[in-house]
Structure formats: C-alpha cells, structure tokens
What we know:
Layout (H helix, E strand, L loop, with lengths): L2 H9 L2 E11 L9 E7 L22 E3 H9 L4 E5 L9 H9 L3 E6 L11 E4 L9 H6 L2 E6 L3 H10 L7 E6 L4 H14 L3 E3 L3 H4 L4
Parallel strand pairs: 2-4, 4-5, 5-6, 6-7, 7-8, 8-9
Antiparallel strand pairs: 1-2, 1-3
Helix pairs in contact: 2-3
Amino acid sequence: MKEEIKSQVDKGEMLPLMEEFYTIQGEGFHKGTAAYFIRVGGCDVGCHWCDVKESWNADLHPPTETAKIVENAAKYSDTIVVTGGEPLTWDMTPLTTQLKAKGLQVHIETSGAYKLTGVWDWICLSPKKMKLPTQEVYDNANELKVIVYNKDDFRFAEEQAAKVNKNCILYLQPEWSKRDKVVPEIVDYVMANPKWKVSLQTHKYLNIP
Length: 209
C-alpha cells in the first residue's frame, strides 16, 4: 500500500471496504428494519465459525474514501450498520461524523476488542473468547449478542452479561451451522433465565444478504 494511502487509512479517511448493500437487519434488537450495511475488511479475532472469513485480510479489500462510502450510504436508508471484519480495527470517527452530519442513525456490530472510536446511536457487542472487549465497549453497549456454538457458550454469556451496563439488552444467538442442536438448548435456557432473549439470523431464513 502506498504511504499516502496507508496514512489516510490509519486516520480513517479511507477504509478497506469489503462490500456495501441495502437489506433487512436480520439480528438482534433491530431485526426486520431496513438498513444499509457497510462491511469493513480487517479482523484478527479469528472465530473458527465466522461466516465472513473473507473479511479478515484487509489487504484484499480496496481502500475507499470515507466520503464516498457516506455518499453511497445516504442514498438508501436512514439506518446505517457498520460491520466487518472488525470495524474498530480502524478509526471510525471520520465515517460516523460524516454519516451523522447527514442525519443518519449509525449502528455498529463489533467484538469490542479494540478502542471504541466513532459516534454511535446503537452498539451491538458480540464478544469473542479469543479477544475480549475493552471496558469502554462493555460500558456503552446497547445490546449484548452472544453466539452459542456449544454448551460452554452459556457460561461465557453469563460472564459477559456481568460486565455490561444495566440497560444492555441480552441476546443468545445460535451459530448457524449448529442451529438444529443449539436452538432447543437456547430456548430452554432463556425460559429458565428470562433476562435473556433469543436472536435468530432471520435474514438467512428470508434468504436475503
């Protein structure tokens, strides 16, 4: 990467854009809402069940001017979801400042493993065992979404729930490839522990991106 471009990426003035698309939010609190997704490349958290592993290597995704990303997003929706990869790998301040200047609602989906940058209307924290969130993200998360792959994830979920703020909404979501096995376990767990809610990847059931 040329030094000038690298400098702009480091400042968040350009971002390694993997894809951008308009669809229906499928998960968590805002499921069913039309939203424009900005998927940023780059992630070293390394979840073995990740369904977008092609996002991990930032070098595979073209550095794109943040202003151009914002211009595209504003054409489609009032709700913008920034996801990855791990978007907090990069400084999100320029992106979110420009999106907010256009009066848009700005959401992030993050593992919380890096410094919280940017201005957010909604923070969906999906923590991973390999690289735990920063305290700042725990303190500011609006929803906690724990992916359930096996029984140990219920223990992990409770550990994480003890760290978030008292207003944070708690979700358990089945890992898609294990859904037939873990959905009944999640249902039983939520019925026994009603502070939790079930999140499903409804976009996959709807067969949309």
